Amino acid sequence: MNAHLATSTPTLGSHQRLPKGLRVLEGRAHGGARILALANQKGGVAKTTSTVNLAAALVEEGRRVLVCDLDPQSNLTMSQGFDPERLERSMYDVLVHKLPIEEIIQHAEFDLAVASIELAGAELALASMIGRERALEKALLTVRRDYDYVLIDTPPSLGLITINALTASDGIIVPVQCEYLSLRGLAQLEATLHMIRENLNPRVAIVGILPTMFDGRLVHAREAIEILEENFGNVVFKTRIRKTVRYAEAPVQGQSVLRYDPMGTAAQAYRELAKEVLALDEATG
Question: What's the CATH code, domain 24-284?
């Protein structure tokens, strides 16, 4: 391994390996669906791509899936063929105006609680509300028993919308680009999760770390995987999401990659990830 990478990662040092709560996906707090947030404050790590395609893969496995788009960019909503600018109501209304979430759910490859650019103003609107960190948790109570999984696509920040997602969730999947600088953000996410566990949601834990945009031809990418595995052990999913143009092409057609290119290696990668997620759920009950 490159010595510079191995010794220049103080935020992932041995004293921080496998912090309390990192590995265990605990039981559902309210029964019903397992709620998983895909979170990383760094943008461009394939959070939305992973949410869409993991959801589609879980549906293929016969699971009932709801996806919540909490990113004001609304890329997930668009990737399933919906125009955010034409939506009359969205997750903004659910979080801020307490609209029942059932009223904004659209049906596509999976059920989708849609987003719009209005979400950009949600943090300011929520800031003065009592219980602002639990707005999403309360909204999901009415539908949790209708699904096996709820997946939450979060914005690239650790603001109030992401805190809502972490507070509502049983577990976190962290997509991480296979580059050195992307790895350093994990420590900041861990610190936020520690705060969430102490003050808002003691059950939340990281389900797994998902290496994305992996190019096995690059020494740097392989070294990044080594650093992840050295610091986080079997918390790192075995699935590697490799770079391919298919992930960019599928949303243009309003489809997951599993529907766009069902026999391709890109689709198969998320099928493998879905099996890992299901195995974790079975192991933890």
Answer: 3.40.50.300
